[in-house]
Amino acid sequence: MKNILNQLSLFASLSLLIACGGTETNDGLNKEDIIPVKLIPLQQGENTNTIQASGVFTTEDEAVLSFKNGGIVQQITVNEGDHVNKGQLLAKLNMTEINTGVQQTDLALEKAERDYRRAQQLFTDSVATKEQLENAKTARDIAIQQNRAAQFNQNFSEIRASTNGYILKRFVNEGQTVGPGTPILQVNGAGNTDWKLKVGVSDQQWALLNIGDEALIESNLSIEKINGQVLRKSEGIDPSSGTFSVTLKINPGQNLNLASGAFARAIIYPSNKTTGWKIPYNALLDGNANQGFVFVTDDKKTAKKVKVTLGAISKDGVMVLSGLENYGYLIISGSAYLSDGSKINALSNQDSLKN
């Protein structure tokens, strides 16, 4: 009986040892240590992705108009949305105080002219000294400059349109007292149909663009798509948005009804092409700005974690610009369970369907 109990105890110990040991592969690894993954071959190709950006319509000659002098607004002849022609009177100050200032300088100039002529005569008669003559001449010259300044201010006490366009904004009403430089009207040159679309792009997108690259613009103000092209690229980043500004010019010959500040979306077709690898989103790990990590393999048995440089992002994947050179396969599933050097088992398409 004792021998039978010993044999049963030995059998149980062996069974437990086998169960804890697991199943080993030919290379001595447990099957539980091998992670099933799905691979795709890495093929470098040309990046033909477009650049999508958004912005608002504007014109080059949009401006906020104001009076040079302060005073009481006597007349505003336009309202928001009005069409104006070049040279048209838009607003005017009450001229009473300004005209009085001009008349005062006129009188001061007349007196200075008389004093100078009198000093000349006295100097000729040896009654006045040369210093007195020079002082009279200086006083006359000062009076002349003061009179010119007063006339200049008089001329700029009214606002006239500098170009054909539209009134975008009216800031004040008649009877208000305004100071020098106070905004009165905002106008643009939309009457010349010289519309621009200003959009923001990333640094990588900015580098791909050239002057003259074609663009297709969509706006709720136009049923048809609008043709345009890259007119200008900013040479510095916009601190308010953190992007580089690109100005698109609307091609002439299009019947458009646009408005300043209206939102629009643009698809830009860069002439510069880049080479790289397009990978699916689920293969990318720890993406940060223009860098990230992926798992690759050459022998389909060992995973390797590599750092990559990212390019354009599209709806069907991410463009990798560098980091995948000299690697054969990219791991696109099971990456969450991997670490650098993990053993893998490449699944076929049929295996993937079964799982």
TrEMBL record:
InterPro entries: BSH_CzcB-like (IPR058647), RND_pump_MFP (IPR006143)
Keywords in alphabetical order: Signal
GO cellular component labels: efflux pump complex
Range of residues in the leader sequence: 1-18
Coiled coil: none
Ranges of residues in domain CzcB-like barrel-sandwich hybrid: 68-187
Domain of life: Bacteria
Gene Ontology molecular function terms on file: efflux transmembrane transporter activity
Pfam families registered for this protein in UniProt: BSH_CzcB
PROSITE patterns for the chain: PROKAR_LIPOPROTEIN (PS51257)
Family to which this protein belongs: Belongs to the membrane fusion protein (MFP) (TC 8.A.1) family.
NCBIfam families reported for this sequence: RND_mfp
PANTHER family attached to this UniProt entry: HLYD FAMILY OF SECRETION PROTEINS, MULTIDRUG RESISTANCE PROTEIN MDTA
Protein name per the record: RND family efflux transporter MFP subunit
